[in-house]
Amino acid sequence: MKIYTKSGDDGETGLYRGGRVRKDDRRIVAIGDLDELNALLGIVLSMAAAPEISEPVAAIQCDLFALGAQIASPDPATAGTALLGDEAIARLERTIDHGETELTPLTAFILPGGSTLGAHLHQSRAVCRRAERHLVALYDGALDEPAHVALRYLNRLGDLLFVLARWSNQLAGHAETEWHPAP
């Protein structure tokens, strides 16, 4: 199979078992955000030696592929697309809860950065939040159960990426920089 098909040369792309849409369609924008997030997490995995960081990130990458397929399917049930479920959200929450037990409680806002790994996790968090916003725009208030789970997953994932950024900085011995408003 060739990597190029030329079928997208006119600005359209195919959905999973569901026709074609413009490449700037809300659905494709949301899928693009998930793809960008997954690529950033690939960078994170290439740098993360600690299993506290690498193990959840590897699982998240698989979840993001499943979520992308779900969004790319106009009718996931008919297409037989696997849907993210509450167990994926519960896994994120368990990891957040465990990570928070390892961290000093926040008393101020912190600036993104720290170690290179921590900075990439902060960037991943920001891309995750963008994906969440674009998914909200795609669903436009029409939240069936899979859409609601997808939004809850991304919301929790943004929280987890923040915790993982802090945790990776702590493991690397990088102090957090607190933000204080100018007087």
TrEMBL record:
The leader peptide range reads none
* Pfam families for the chain: Cob_adeno_trans
Q: In which pathway does it act?
A: Cofactor biosynthesis; adenosylcobalamin biosynthesis; adenosylcobalamin from cob(II)yrinate a,c-diamide: step 2/7
- Specify whether rRNA-binding is a keyword of the entry: no
Give the record's keywords alphabetically.
ATP-binding, Cobalamin biosynthesis, Nucleotide-binding, Transferase
The EC number(s) given in the record are: 2.5.1.17
- What reaction is this protein's catalytic activity? 2 cob(II)yrinate a,c diamide + reduced [electron-transfer flavoprotein] + 2 ATP = 2 adenosylcob(III)yrinate a,c-diamide + 2 triphosphate + oxidized [electron-transfer flavoprotein] + 3 H(+); 2 cob(II)alamin + reduced [electron-transfer flavoprotein] + 2 ATP = 2 adenosylcob(III)alamin + 2 triphosphate + oxidized [electron-transfer flavoprotein] + 3 H(+)
Q: What family does the entry list?
A: Belongs to the Cob(I)alamin adenosyltransferase family.
Q: Looking at the keywords, is Protein transport present?
A: no
Q: What is this protein called?
A: Corrinoid adenosyltransferase
Q: Which InterPro entries match?
A: CblAdoTrfase-like (IPR016030), CblAdoTrfase-like_sf (IPR036451), PduO-typ (IPR029499)
* Residue ranges of every copy of the Cobalamin adenosyltransferase-like domain listed in the record: 3-167
Top-level enzyme category:
transferase
Which Gene Ontology terms cover its molecular function? Answer: ATP binding; corrinoid adenosyltransferase activity
One of the GO BP terms on file: cobalamin biosynthetic process
